[in-house]
Amino acid sequence: MKLNHLNLTVTDVGAAKDFLMNYFGLKLGGERGRSFAALFDDNGMVLTLMKGKEVNYPATFHIGFGQESEEKVNEMYKRLVDDGFSATSPERAHAWTFYVEAPGGFTVEVMA
């Protein structure tokens, strides 16, 4: 059995979609106006984004994207910070990792 899809409620579908496509390589599968988008990863998993007025995920909630090396994590960190996103500094935890606040009201972990 494999995970087929995951749905995130976000405050701004367009901004969240663009963020995930630009930085994490997800591909657009389809969308309905500004209220819904379906994104695919390289393995066929679908991440759907649905518009919500409020987003209240628990503090520890996040989605994660693995990178092939610590150098790639550092490059991603620099790119996101240079582009104005709020991110924690990379650190050694369960992996070489950092967290970034994504547009739309959710957190993304980047790790290797």
Keyphrases for this structure?
2,3-Dihydroxybiphenyl 1,2-Dioxygenase, domain 1; 2 domains; 22% helix; globular; single chain; 112 residues; 4-stranded mixed beta sheet; 38% strand; alpha/beta
Summarize the structure.
This protein is of the alpha/beta class and 112 residues long. The chain is built from two helices and eight strands, in the order βαββββαβββ. It comes from Paenibacillus pinisoli.
Question: How many strands?
Answer: 8
Order of strands side by side in the largest beta sheet? 1-4-3-2
Number of domains: 2
Largest sheet: 4 strands, mixed
Q: Residue ranges: pLDDT <50 for 5 or more in a row?
A: none
Structural class: alpha/beta
Anisotropy-based shape: globular
Order of helices and strands: EHEEEEHEEE
The helix content, as a percent range, equals 10-25%
Distance N terminus to C terminus? 25 Å
So how many helices? 2
CATH secondary-structure class of the largest domain:
Alpha Beta
Name of the CATH homologous superfamily of the largest domain: 2,3-Dihydroxybiphenyl 1,2-Dioxygenase, domain 1
CATH topology of the largest domain: 2,3-Dihydroxybiphenyl 1,2-Dioxygenase, domain 1
The proportion of residues in beta strands is 35-45%
CATH architecture of the largest domain: Roll
Radius of gyration: 14 Å
Average of pLDDT:
97
Task: Describe the structure in your own words.
It holds the Pfam family Glyoxalase. By secondary structure, this protein is an alpha/beta fold. The chain has two domains: 1-52, 2,3-Dihydroxybiphenyl 1,2-Dioxygenase, domain 1 (Roll), CATH 3.10.180.10; 62-112, 2,3-Dihydroxybiphenyl 1,2-Dioxygenase, domain 1 (Roll), CATH 3.10.180.10. Helix content is 22%, strand content 38%. The chain is built from two helices and eight strands. The protein has helices spanning 13-24, 70-82; strands at 5-10, 27-32, 36-40, 46-51, 63-66, 91-92, 96-102, 106-111. The strands form two sheets. A four-stranded mixed beta sheet has the order 1-4-3-2, with helices on one face. A hairpin with a 3-residue loop joins strand 7 and strand 8. The longest helix has 13 residues, at 70-82. The protein starts with a strand and ends with a strand. The mean pLDDT is 97.
